[in-house]
Inverse folding.
């Protein structure tokens, strides 16, 4: 459907595309992909996460083509992803083996392995540094050298010297039988990039949809669940950030082949959160007792707010009763998909001449009828 009444038809559409391209190049400056990767890593990671494709150079190119529009860049990434052939399925990633560069717990002050603040804006003043406007390539190199020398004198682990393995905070809580047990689901995960959403959705679908959902939507709905439009008000048991290895089985390998037989493809950055929510459960003797539910979040990249919100919604969507929208699978999972939401909202810009004329005629008839009744 197009704007058939627009003078020129196809020529007008072609011209509109030329106008958007002219807008991109009007400044006369070429922003190369390496600069985007280096200076805007978190933007690139968001596009990769929501686009369900870990390909930094492609994501940076999409950001450039979209002139910085996240929703357009994600759309481009998903469109590109749909053209790729899937050759292998990776082995299950074990986040216990994460190379951690940041790891905190809001539940305990002292944790085995220690709290590692790592790189975070949590303690910054959020004041704009106007001197960055005059930054040069030389000043950036000098600043990088200065920081490297300063950090070399600290005990803070920095890549590639991140901690290879740290124990989980939840291990202690499980050892004292304070973590509520959920039935183990050993069914094959459903791939939502190949299978349409249906409800009730298995947990594999819930976690996939949350992980690749529109970042701001996941955070907003998670916030709503915490504010009172849900039953989940968590304590972050553990947040860990780092890189995990991606491996595939050797071609022709038998099932359950030894770990050393796998092919290492590379590592991807992830952020993992295990949130704790106090809940009541009934034990084997029929007695009520307090226990801890665990909400789980894992996102590609370093967006901690999204991972925490994901853990909140993971817990919310496992509720037995749906008293709030944040516990309704269809409400949450449909509305956090950025491409779906953008597409539906954007379609409102397309011609609706016939349907609107019908509504207008109906409204005019109603007004006329009421006017006739008033005259009578």
């Amino acid at each position: 459907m197009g704007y058939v009444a627009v003078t020129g038809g196809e020529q007008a559409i072609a011209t509109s595309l030329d106008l958007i391209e002219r807008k991109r190049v009007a400044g006369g400056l070429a922003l190369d992909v390496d600069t985007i990767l280096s200076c805007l890593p978190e933007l690139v990671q968001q596009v990769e996460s929501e686009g369900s494709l870990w390909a930094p150079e492609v994501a940076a190119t999409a950001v450039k083509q979209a002139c910085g529009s996240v929703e357009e860049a994600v759309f481009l990434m998903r469109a590109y992803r749909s053209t790729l052939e899937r050759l292998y399925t990776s082995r299950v990633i074990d986040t216990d083996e994460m190379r951690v560069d940041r790891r905190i717990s809001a539940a305990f002050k002292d944790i085995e392995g220690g709290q590692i603040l790592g790189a975070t804006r949590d303690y910054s003043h959020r004041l704009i540094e106007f001197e960055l406007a005059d930054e040069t390539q030389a000043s950036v190199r000098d600043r990088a050298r200065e920081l490297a020398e300063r950090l070399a004198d600290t005990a803070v682990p920095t890549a590639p010297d991140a901690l290879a393995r740290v124990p989980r905070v939840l291990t202690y809580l499980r050892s004292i039988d304070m973590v509520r047990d959920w039935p183990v689901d050993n069914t094959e995960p459903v791939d939502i990039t190949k299978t349409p959403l249906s409800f009730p959705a298995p947990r594999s679908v819930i976690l996939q949809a949350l992980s690749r959902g529109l970042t701001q939507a996941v955070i907003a709905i998670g916030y709503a669940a915490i504010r009172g439009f849900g039953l989940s008000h968590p304590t972050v048991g553990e947040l860990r950030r780092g890189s995990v290895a991606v491996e595939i089985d050797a071609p022709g390998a038998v099932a359950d082949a030894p770990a050393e037989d796998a092919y290492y493809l590379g590592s991807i950055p992830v952020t993992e959160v295990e949130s704790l929510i106090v809940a009541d459960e009934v034990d084997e003797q029929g007695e009520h007792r307090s226990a801890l539910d665990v909400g789980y979040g894992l996102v590609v990249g370093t967006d901690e707010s999204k991972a925490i919100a994901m853990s909140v919604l993971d817990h919310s969507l496992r509720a037995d009763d749906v008293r709030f929208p944040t516990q309704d699978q269809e409400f949450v999972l449909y509305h956090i998909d950025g491409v779906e939401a953008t597409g539906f909202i954007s379609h409102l810009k397309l011609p609706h001449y016939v349907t609107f004329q019908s509504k207008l005629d109906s409204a005019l008839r109603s007004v006329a009828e009421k006017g006739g009744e008033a005259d009578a």
